[in-house]
């Protein structure tokens, strides 16, 4: 935990040195207080004193999770300020302020339920909170303050509902990241729905907002409904499919129509088949999806013939990382907008299939339970299987969060040109190579972990080679001699992979994106 905290502090100070404004100072203050409060959360988890049931076999992860959203906002603000895009500069300020307030709320919650009350931690939290609130008071307009408070309110209610319904699925840090992100997306969707201006806004951004909020609301609806009814019967399954169609066609589609001012289905079909390149990419991705399904069926057939207790090895699970890299790299090179939309569709399908598995919806619910149980690891300790969804999110978030409006030529200068590749580098290449090489040939272990020195060094080397290949094949990438910063970023994130107990598929790409954008 101490080494993980040291690495996060190094990243925070690196961003602070690159940006050096009042919000980066606030980020430093937030990191100091989160470091102290993290130990209070860890103690609460060990003693069973936390309000909800969190994922075991991991620390609270409060410090690394607390810094992600504020740092994303800080670097987004700085990039858009340099590009002269005032609207998105202010958006970055709102993102940073929202992330800091959510992290402070989680810290105050931990301090409040710790007995006896930790005096020193309370003083630190009070000082950090005062600095942040004072900065927000002199930086935000009234409408921006209201927006930040709206996200906080949504986060509080969403946390109470989902953490109660889904015990042992998240650590406190993962809950902050996932539920904070969903709360922000929901607030953005409500805000944009109330202020629709024809012709303003990119349809693919609206598509992402509606898809995320739609699948979350669908899950909440069926969770409440199946409290009163057995979900494994044919009647319940028919109702599930019927209500999915009703909510999709009666709520989600009209909502998207209001935002993009055209028929969503016609827009989507026109978008997917607009060029011949997109057609080739869709055929190629269909082949890769079939290959992934083939791996699942083959491993389950192998389990049936060998032993019922057979579990997929780490190397086998990394097959999917290779398939995802093969999926994303051509999309990033040839058509990023298509990759953006395809990733949104894939996320919606993954979550919908998880609903079918979780609720045992006929005719595929039990089959999905049997097929996916082979690939479970210690992080899937709750009722949901989330690791494959986290892998998709880790690869997609750098694409979704890339500030297109602040990149006049479609790419950022210097190391920022690699931002969309953050997921490919951190998870697809780094994590895969570290895990595969470390588990088979690694001998020297990092102190206090199961990860090996050889795995980490090989991961860094592999990511440098991947950057060189990106330079060769993607003509839009121009690093402008920022190689030392890229090497430092890749090294810090690879070391964080060795020491963190959080979901690395989600955390590592975001930290690499922050470093590259800074």
UniProtKB/TrEMBL annotation:
Gene: Dolk
A GO term, aspect molecular function: dolichol kinase activity
TM segment ranges: 7-36, 88-111, 117-136, 148-166, 206-229, 238-257, 277-298, 319-334, 340-360, 381-401, 421-441, 453-473, 485-512
GO cellular component, one term: endoplasmic reticulum membrane
Chief location bin: endoplasmic reticulum
PANTHER family noted in UniProt: DOLICHOL KINASE, TRANSMEMBRANE PROTEIN 15-RELATED
Protein name: dolichol kinase
Signal peptide: 1-17
Domain of life: Eukaryota
UniProt KW keywords: Endoplasmic reticulum, Kinase, Membrane, Signal, Transferase, Transmembrane, Transmembrane helix
Family: Belongs to the polyprenol kinase family.
InterPro entries noted in UniProt: Polypren_kinase
EC numbers: 2.7.1.108
Membrane topology: Multi-pass membrane protein
Subcellular compartments: Endoplasmic reticulum membrane
Gene Ontology BP terms: dolichyl monophosphate biosynthetic process
């Amino acid at each position: 935990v101490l080494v993980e905290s040291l690495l996060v502090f190094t990243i925070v100070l690196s961003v602070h040195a690159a940006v050096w404004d009042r919000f980066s100072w606030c980020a430093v203050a937030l990191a100091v207080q989160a470091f102290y409060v993290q130990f209070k959360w860890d103690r609460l988890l060990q003693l069973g004193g936390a309000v909800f049931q969190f994922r075991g076999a991991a620390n609270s992860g409060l410090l690394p999770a607390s810094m992600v959203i504020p740092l994303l906002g800080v670097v987004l603000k700085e990039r858009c300020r340099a590009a002269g895009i005032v609207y998105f500069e202010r958006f970055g300020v709102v993102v940073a302020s929202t992330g800091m307030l959510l992290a402070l709320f989680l810290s105050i919650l931990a301090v409040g339920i710790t007995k006896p009350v930790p005096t020193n931690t309370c003083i630190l939290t009070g000082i950090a909170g005062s600095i942040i609130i004072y900065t927000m008071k002199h930086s935000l307009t009234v409408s921006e303050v209201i927006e930040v408070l709206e996200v906080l309110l949504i986060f509080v209610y969403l946390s109470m509902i989902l953490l109660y319904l889904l015990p042992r699925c998240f650590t406190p840090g993962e809950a902050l990241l996932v539920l904070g992100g969903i709360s922000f997306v929901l607030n953005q969707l409500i805000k944009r729905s109330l202020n629709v201006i024809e012709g303003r806004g990119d349809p693919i951004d609206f598509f992402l907002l509606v898809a995320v909020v739609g699948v979350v609301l669908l899950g909440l609806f069926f969770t409440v409904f199946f409290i009163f009814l057995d979900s494994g019967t044919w009647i319940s399954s028919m109702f599930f499919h019927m209500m999915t169609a009703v909510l999709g066609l009666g709520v989600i589609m009209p909502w998207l129509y209001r935002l993009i001012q055209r028929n969503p289905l016609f827009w989507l079909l026109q978008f997917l088949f607009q060029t011949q390149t997109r057609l080739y990419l869709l055929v190629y991705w269909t082949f890769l999806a079939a290959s992934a399904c083939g791996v699942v069926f083959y491993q389950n057939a192998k389990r049936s013939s060998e032993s019922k207790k057979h579990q997929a090895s780490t190397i086998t699970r990394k097959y999917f990382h290779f398939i995802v890299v093969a999926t994303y790299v051509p999309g990033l090179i040839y058509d990023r907008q298509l990759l953006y939309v395809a990733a949104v569709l894939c996320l919606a399908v993954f979550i919908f299939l998880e609903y079918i598995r979780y609720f045992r919806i006929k005719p595929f619910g039990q089959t999905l339970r049997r097929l996916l149980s082979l690939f479970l690891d210690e992080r899937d300790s709750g009722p949901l299987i989330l690791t494959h969804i986290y892998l998709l999110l880790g690869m997609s978030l750098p694409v979704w969060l890339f500030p297109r409006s602040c990149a006049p030529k479609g790419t950022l200068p210097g190391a920022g040109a690699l931002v969309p590749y953050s997921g490919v580098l951190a998870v697809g290449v780094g994590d895969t190579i570290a895990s595969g090489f470390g588990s088979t040939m690694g001998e020297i272990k990092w102190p206090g972990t199961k990860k090996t020195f050889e795995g980490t060094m090989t991961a860094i080397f592999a990511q440098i080679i991947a950057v060189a290949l990106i330079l060769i094949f993607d003509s839009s990438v121009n690093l402008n001699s920022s190689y030392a910063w890229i090497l430092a970023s890749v090294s810090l994130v690879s070391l964080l992979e060795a020491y963190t107990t959080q979901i690395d598929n989600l955390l590592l790409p975001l930290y690499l994106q922050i470093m590259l954008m800074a």
